Structure formats: C-alpha cells, structure tokens
Amino acid sequence: xxxxxxxxVTRKDWMTIGxxxxxxxxxxxxxxxxxxxxxxxxLTSLTAELDSAKVELQKALDTKKNIEKLQAEMDxxxxxxxxxxxxxxxxxxxxxLLKDFERIAADVGLEVVLKSxxxxxxxxxxTLPYSVVARGSFHQITGFINQLELFK
Length: 152
Prior knowledge:
With 152 residues, the protein is mainly alpha-helical. Helix content is 71%, strand content 11%. The longest helix has 55 residues, at 11-65. The relative contact order is 0.05.
C-alpha cells in the first residue's frame, strides 16, 4: 500500500480500494434498508397523525366559533325535555290516566282493551308499558288518536 503513495499502484492497492468501496457500499445499503426505511415509515405514520390532528383541531375551532348557537340549541332541547318530563304521569296518576284513556275511546265509540306489561327501568325513568287493542272504524281510530294528541 505504501507504493500507492509513491506513485506506483499495485494490484494489492486496487483490491484494498475495492474492499473499502465495497464495505462502504454494503454499509450504505444496510443503512438504507434497515434504518432509513424504518424512519421513512415512522415519518409517514407521524404525518398521517398530524393530518388527523389538524382535522380534529379544525372541528374544534368550528365548534368554538358556533358555541353560542349550539348552547342556544341545547337550551331549547333541555326545555323540551323538561316539558315532556313534566307531562309524564307518576304512579299515583296512572289509574286516572287509564280511566281517561278509556273514556276518550268510549266518547268516539271505540272499543279498547288495555293490558299492562312488565315495567322497564333505566337510569332516568321507569316505563310502564301497556298493549292496546282497539276495535272500530278508521274514523273512530283516527278520532281517538286526535283526542289523545289534544289530551293534557
């Protein structure tokens, strides 16, 4: 190898240069295949996460911009729910409600049969379901439904 610095290049010098270049090429290939490819995949994943976060951020900004409008809508919905809950009967009112139901049916000449079913309880309310069989003409049934809609 010392001959190389004196100006004479031997076959051994070319083999050494080839080995150095081959090792460098092998190291570069290993880097690209193992390190660079993993980093590129990680970058792609992070870019996708960033895009998703940008979309979520835009949604949050849109919501913030419309928060007053959304709050007004929520207040309206809460008022409707309160009104509906006030109209729901409690256990003590159920017998009178059933009598009123049967009276309305009799007023329009409709024959109804009420049959209670098992109560359904969830976190906010208890539901007392009834099955209703009504016998009458189309006009009697529609008149009955109209009277129920107008009922307190």
